[in-house]
Amino acid sequence: MTAAQKTAALTIEGLRVSIGGHDVLHGVDLTLEAGRVHGLAGESGSGKTMTGLAVLGLLPHGSRASGRIAFGGRDLLEMPARELNEVRGAKIAMVFQDPATSLHPMLTVERQLTEHMRHHLGIGRKDARERAAALLAKVRIPGPEEALKRYPHQFSGGMRQRIAIAVALACEPEVLIADEPTTALDVTVQAGILRLLRGLCDDLGLAVLLVTHDLGVMSAVADEVSVMKDGLVVETGPRGRVLREPRHPYTRSLLDALPVPPGENSP
């Protein structure tokens, strides 16, 4: 492991979130390391997505958060809104399950990529366009120059998700939160997106938080795995250990629920 891989890019300590007086996170602890994919697994409603939204300050109206989210020597929970806006999308970015939530249907791909960069990086139109084309090539969009002129609806679901990842990477963030990025995709396309995330993590030194309900997805790309239940992390460890030797009954139940490949039960 390199020195960069041992560096904590973001640390969550004792994160608690309540919405309308109802507690949804009960003291979450997580550490994301540069150059590593950290999988966060659990059933729907376990608090996975809420954890990612809390990092970006995107909690629902009426929410209250406490604890500590340390990034760059600062606590994001105590950061003024204006400063947090500069971190969000630039230093910490998020990819959502449905690219329709992050891609504007009426704007070209070029505009969505370049406006993001021009706002956060302060670069000119020409430089932003060149960077946008290079980003599309990096996420393996065929014909990136032509793709810039097109609209999201002109791409397949898998290509739209790749474009959403390009938008998230536009300002060279240090942390990428991927919230169920493959759930809406078929198995073949899903595998391609997971390979892309793994490659970007390795090539760019990103700290990636991969949020998913599917432990099978974790087994493909994660370095570490944390398992959430009822707003708490109940188990954390290296992927191989957690998936082969789970220590918490809930983790074992998730693994038992995975589909068994054909012939697996044959004598």
TrEMBL record:
Coiled coil: none annotated. Signal peptide: none annotated. Keywords: ATP-binding, Cell membrane, Membrane, Nucleotide-binding, Transport. Transmembrane segments: none annotated. Gene3D superfamilies: P-loop containing nucleotide triphosphate hydrolases. It comes from the Bacteria. It is found in: Cell membrane. Residues 10-255 form the ABC transporter domain. GO terms for biological process: peptide transport. GO terms for cellular component: plasma membrane. It is a peripheral membrane protein. InterPro entries: AAA+_ATPase (IPR003593), ABC_Ni/Peptide_Import (IPR050388), ABC_transporter-like_ATP-bd (IPR003439), ABC_transporter-like_CS (IPR017871), Oligopep_ABC_C (IPR013563), P-loop_NTPase (IPR027417). GO terms for molecular function: ATP binding; ATP hydrolysis activity. Belongs to the ABC transporter superfamily. PANTHER family: DIPEPTIDE TRANSPORT ATP-BINDING PROTEIN DPPD (PTHR43297:SF2), OLIGOPEPTIDE TRANSPORT ATP-BINDING PROTEIN APPD (PTHR43297). This is Peptide/nickel transport system ATP-binding protein/peptide/nickel transport system ATP-binding protein. It comes from Microbispora rosea.
